[in-house]
Amino acid sequence: MKILLTGATGYIGKRLLPVLVAQGHHVVCCVRDKKRFNPPKSLALKLSIITLDLLKEATLNNIPKDIDAAYYLVHSMSAAKNYEALEKESAINFTKTLDKTSVNHVVYLSGIINDDDLSEHLSSRKAVEFELQKGKWHLTTFRAGIIIGSGSASFEIIRDLVEKLPVMITPKWLNTKCQPIGITDVISFLSKTLTVPETYDKNFDIGGPDVLSYKNMLLQFAEIRGLKRRIWIVPVMTPRLSSYWLYFVTSTSYRLAVALVNSMKVEVICRNQNINSILNIQPISYKQALNKAFKKIESNEIVSSWKDALSSGVMTINVSDFIQVPTHGCFLDHREKIMTNREVTINRIWRIGGETGWYYGDNLWKLRGFIDKLYGGVGLRRGRTHTDALYSGDPLDFWRVLYANKAEGRLLLFAEMKLPGDAWLEFKVEGNKLVQTATFRPVGLSGRLYWYSVLPFHGFIFKNMLNKLTA
Q1: What is the pTM of this model?
Q2: Within 10 A of 410 (CB to CB), how many other CB atoms are there?
Q3: Where in the chain is the domain with CATH 3.30.530.20?
Q4: Beta carbons of 466 and 434 less than 8 angstroms apart
Q5: Do 28 and 11 meet the contact criterion of CB atoms below 8 Å apart?
Q6: Least CB-packed of 54, 79, 116, 375 within 10 Å?
């Protein structure tokens, strides 16, 4: 079949793609920026790529008319304050466009919405489902709660809390119950439902066998990691304080923290799980999902991460819009040095950030990340998705990878920290030397004052970083 895959660069989409290809389907991958899409070479001949932004009508014409099925995996929860309106508009545009195609089956991944008092996030998911139901095709909706897998937002947030805090003073929503599900089971439900009439025009709750409170999830995670943790729940922590607590302790953005806290007050437990027998799937337990996730991490096989989404930063950009580094009206810190070994230098560059650090002045980089957090930025907690691989669109601490070509020896980063301007950091191999350039395009007087205030630190941080990379 010819399948339209929206959200192909997202956490779920990246994992679903190879499964669909393995089933023999031709997949039409929808991306907002082709420069951010880096599918494995083994899949390249079995897919096609189109540019699609459901909020831009001009791009909707790129959808082929001869598709058989489609996946709706678009989500705007952390991208903007008015995400509820944006999600509804996206669903309306999607429905109108697909009604002009030959599509027969659409699959939508939503959230469990059985409570009468829903958060804004869950209400928006319900509204999207309502709009998709208006289509002329069969709709299958899977409603999931907490998804556990290497790189998932839920997994990373739980990991941050458990591994960083021996003692936790927590809000009362940690007593709320949920029914987590492993990412492999989610992908199984999504992929196996195609051409199964029993799932047409219906919605199904999907979850694992365990119903747990968030507190129990944290404690079981600690048990898996061999850590002793103490958790005290207090009733005085308001939703706003809870959001700040989650934001500062974990790698989540503030907008996502607010959405998550509001949603975590709502129980997400499956009504029934008849779909398990329909598709012959027996979901694994919470602990089994955790163990699978850590095996992927330990073998450096993280296929996707929620941090890969541009909305995990402080802005939504098209990588292509920033790949040409400006010079006019910009401040530059330009340095060059002869390399001892080209291959060693490039490998060091490709491991920069995350657990490796920045080769010099790591405490100063951490301080800068902490200050960024205080001002509502992303800080350093996003780290990096892969230990030694970088692709366009990847997060790298408080940077975003714009261009990464290891053979060429060029890496270009764009700053997603809170700044009075735009900033780029570029590493480029030219012959036997490494060229390192920091570019800052200031906005107003505050931008110029910022540059001169950090200039003294550049003198030894960038100099010594270059020395370490080329040694």
Answers
A1: 0.72
A2: 17
A3: 313-470
A4: yes
A5: no
A6: 116
Angle at alpha carbon of residue 216, lines to 213 and 221, rounded to 5°: 130
- What 154-159 contacts at long range (C-beta under 8 Å, 24+ apart), as own/partner pairs, is 154/180, 155/290, 155/293, 156/250, 156/251, 156/252, 156/305, 156/306, 156/307, 157/246, 157/250, 157/251, 157/252, 157/260, 158/217, 158/218, 158/221, 159/221
141, two tokens: 């909706």
Q: pLDDT tier at 122 (50, 70, 90 boundaries)? A: confident
| DSSP label of 372 | H
- Residue-level pLDDT at 152: 80
Q: Where in the chain is the domain with CATH 3.40.50.720?
A: 2-307
| CATH class given for the domain over 313-470 | alpha beta
End-to-end alpha carbon distance in the chain: 53
Alpha helices in 250-399 (DSSP H): 254-264, 275-279, 286-298, 319-322, 342-349, 362-374
CATH code of domain 2-307: 3.40.50.720
Does 357 score more than 80 pLDDT? yes
Structure tokens at 216: 């129990």
Distance CA 436, CA 427 (A): 5
Q: What is the pLDDT of residue 402?
A: 86
Residue 163 tokens, joined: 């591994």
Mean residue pLDDT of the chain comes to 85
Give the number of residues written for the chain.
Answer: 471
How many percent of the chain have pLDDT more than 90?
45
Both tokens of 150, joined, read 């290497």
Place of tokens 């509502």: 376
What pLDDT is stored for residue 459 in this prediction? 86
More confident residue, 30 or 381: 30
